[in-house]
Amino acid sequence: MSRAEVGTGQGGRTGTGLAIALLSGLSFGLAGPFAAALLAVGWSPLAVVLGRLGGAALLLVVPMIVVLARGWRPRIPELRAVVVYGAVPLAGAQICYFSAVDRLSVGVALLIEYTAPVLLLGWTWARTAARPRPATLWGAALAVAGLVLVVEVWRGAAVDVVGVLWGLGAAVCLAAYFQLSAAVDGTDDGPRALVLTAGGAVVGSGIVLLVGVVGLLPLTARAAPIVLAGWTAPWWVGVALVAAFSTALAYLTGIAAVGRLGSRIASFVGLSEVLFAVLGAWWLVSQRPTGPQVLGGVLIVAAIVLIRRAEPRV
């Protein structure tokens, strides 16, 4: 195969990875509006998390059984990865984030959690002593500036030390998600991605349920109708959407994207989740974005493009 053919194949793989990463960002981003509809009728945050993970586990357990029945067997290290994946990126990130929201404004909590890509840059820099390219650092600065504008942290932000620690915990869990996903190529080895997501959802559901049962966080749900985009729907529609679209599809596409792009680039493309969340909230729950939020979205897109052009091709 010629060098030109190799380059074309790599370019196609990267382009597909970017498309999958944006789909993952859209899926994750709409989780907020879907959850907001449930929270508005009396659901507790922990109950929404349980609905996300439990529903995703139910959706993915059948295809996982099919994969196992066809003879594919995970190795011991992969089983350990499933446990860690369910405990840290799935249950841990969401529990930490909602605990931060309990003490901080939503904007501040979200901004702290989304320092994860910057943490990844710092971690890679410290571990490999390979200084990121200047354009990469400028992209990181643009991404942070865009997030500040999108979440509008200057509006009633209340700083609490414990809340900040919870937010940093969520950021570490999110960074762990990108690092763990980097070990699984969702294109070349679909069974690993499926088992990691499905098994992690089962483990995460168990942890969230335990947190609720022992009373660390309230676990309450109501069978009241929800409203999405002006349409009144049964409560289970919201649970189905947040479980199927914003959890099962989101994590599967996220793993596939990281396998193609690498954890660092995929983490920055994942920032599009915030932009999709703002647009989804405008459409589904009538939360209109402001001028600064639109400007922040433009900065995030610019940061993604800058990082993409700065990072060396693999």
From TrEMBL:
The UniProt record lists the keyword Transmembrane: yes
Membrane spanning residue stretches: 20-43, 49-69, 81-100, 106-125, 137-157, 163-182, 194-215, 235-258, 265-285, 291-307
EamA domain segment(s): 16-151, 163-307
PANTHER family xrefs: ACYL-MALONYL CONDENSING ENZYME-RELATED, MOBA-LIKE NTP TRANSFERASE DOMAIN-CONTAINING PROTEIN
Domain of life: Bacteria
Family named by the database record: Belongs to the EamA transporter family.
Record's protein name: EamA family transporter
Pfam families xref list: EamA
Keyword annotations from UniProtKB, A to Z: Membrane, Transmembrane, Transmembrane helix
Species of origin: Actinomycetospora aurantiaca
SUPFAM superfamilies the record matches: Multidrug resistance efflux transporter EmrE
